Amino acid sequence: MSYVDEVIERIVQENPAEPEFHQAVKEVLESLRPVVEENEEKYRRDAILERLVNPERQIKFRVPWVDDKGQAHVNTGYRVQFNSAVGPYKGGIRLHPSVNLGIIKFLGFEQIFKNSLTGLPIGGGKGGSDFDPKGKSDREIMAFCQSFMTELYKYIGANADVPAGDIGTGSREIGYMYGQYKRIRGLFEGVLTGKGLSYGGSLARTEATGYGLLYITEELLKCNGHSMKGKTVVVSGSGNVAIYAIQKACELGATVLTASDSTGWVYDPDGIDVAALKQIKEIDRARLTEYKKYRPNSEYHEGRGMWCIKADIALPCATQNELTLADAKLLVTNGVLAVAEGANMPTTMEATEYLQQNGVLFLPGKAANAGGVATSALEMSQNSERISWTFEEVDTKLRNIMVDIFHHIDAAAKKYGFDKNYVIGANIAGFEKVVDAMQVQGIV
Ligand code: NDP
Q1: Ligand 1 centroid vs 280 CA: distance in angstroms?
Q2: What is the pTM of this model?
Q3: Which residue of 10, 70, 181, 353 is 20 to 30 Å from 347, comparing CA positions?
Q4: In the chain, which segments carry CATH 3.40.50.10860?
């Protein structure tokens, strides 16, 4: 049995009931086959793959908090510190009822390669809780965040592990967590990113993942003889990533036809109204059913199904495994040109393969959504230097990073004979730097 197959088999056996983690490991290790085969003896001797797929540390803790009626609740908190070969652990905190150890491990594992691709010195980690922020009062959110940080603070620090936002963790939650960290540690340091501008946040961090997604998609299109101008786009999600992806797509001359949330989706033939979306989601924290009040011409549909809308580009920006094989078939039938992942692993493995086999240009999340963490690393730099860059400075750096990532993954795919397979390119390019750092640091 090959080294790759052995490690995949063992990870499935040793980590039962973690299907998302298995999926992420399989996707990455399958892509790495050509590199691993070239170096099999050395990698085996140094247990490179075993050390890559096993987190350096995984922390699980109780998060007790009291609701507005005086009722106590207990949620589970996680922080998985996956790999620190190239820098301090870095990765967001997901607050969603679906969170479990396997989901945090899949996200932390992906984060290693994504962070490496940014070219910045950040290792991979991820955290979260099965707490559901939906429908909670501000006081309840504060109570949860303070309790979560009262345990988490022991394991993080500006040079050790720097968490950020993710699903369910926005600027409000980061603010409460930062306040509690500062209170306990007595340190005003860059321990979290995605902070507010008044206490060390970076301009353009809010926009970064969505904008970065469009910068890299534009570069992909340019290098394949197209451009965003005049294109139609289907987007899923209506959170941080989706909103700023839609905004930048419009700025680049495209028309975005859809947005979704966890209960339904909207189709707006005249183009999604970003201001209305921001009002509904960022300010009112309401459902997308409200969208029709702003745009009477639009349609609201319960459930999922938006991938049936004909468009040139598809940008899944909500959650994992939201674009299935059946959806991929619809997109291909409708002549989609490119799919770029704003979310983490939103496309199932079968769907990804089908899209690639049918000539669709496909950018995986670890490259396409790396703009968020890249700008978080820029926030860390500004915090260390005690300065703030302008929006334009950060945005220009972000754009350059995304363009560089595209060329880096394109070159890695070509080097191993997989031209235009950006999944393989991203995994290999991300792996090369990490494996080099792991090898020179000895068996740790
Ligand atoms: P938000 O919480 O801001 O938004 C998430 C969106 O996806 C919401 O519209 C939400 O709907 C929808 N959603 C969440 N879970 C589900 C589900 N199970 N089924 C259908 N829809 C769902 O999160 P972000 O925009 O920050 O994150 C979106 C994705 O992008 C995630 O995969 C995240 O890991 C990834 N990502 C985020 C980065 C960032 O900087 N924020 C960086 C890199 C990746 P509802 O409003 O109903 O909750």
Answers
A1: 15
A2: 0.96
A3: 10
A4: 3-189
User: With bands split at pLDDT 50, 70 and 90, how would you rate the model's confidence at 201?
Assistant: very high
Atom of ligand 1 nearest to the CA of 319: 32
Q: Which is the closest atom of ligand 1 to the Cα of 346?
A: 32
| CA-nearest residue, atom 11 of ligand 1 | 261
Choose among 192, 168, 188, 176: nearest CA to 376: 192
Instruction: Tell me the pLDDT tens digit for each residue of 41-52.
Output: 999 999 999 999
Task: Give the mutation target among 240, 379, 405 for probing the ligand 1 site: most ligand atoms within 8 A of CB.
Answer: 240
Distances in whole angstroms, Cα of residue 70 to Cα of each of 177, 367, 432:
22, 45, 52
The pLDDT assigned to 175 comes to: 98
What are the structure tokens assigned to 247, written together?
């905004």
Whole-angstrom distance, CA of residue 67 vs CA of residue 73: 7
| Sign of the CA dihedral running 170, 173, 178, 181 | negative
CATH of 206-363, one of 3.30.420.40, 3.40.50.720, 1.10.3720.10, 3.60.21.10: 3.40.50.720
* β-pair type (57-66, 313-316): unpaired
What are the tokens at 411? 């070159």
* CA-134 nearest atom, ligand 1: 48
In the predicted model, what is the mean pLDDT of the chain? 97
In whole angstroms, give the CA distance from residue 409 to residue 427.
8
Q: What is the pLDDT of residues 51-62, one digit of tens each?
A: 999 999 999 999
Q: What tokens were used for 22?
A: 């298995």
Residues 82 and 85: their CA atoms lie apart, in Å, by 10
Q: CB within 6 Å of ligand 1 — which residues?
A: 165-168, 209, 237-242, 261-262, 317-319, 342-344, 369, 372
- Residues tagged active-site: 126
Is the CATH number of domain 3-189 3.40.50.10860? yes
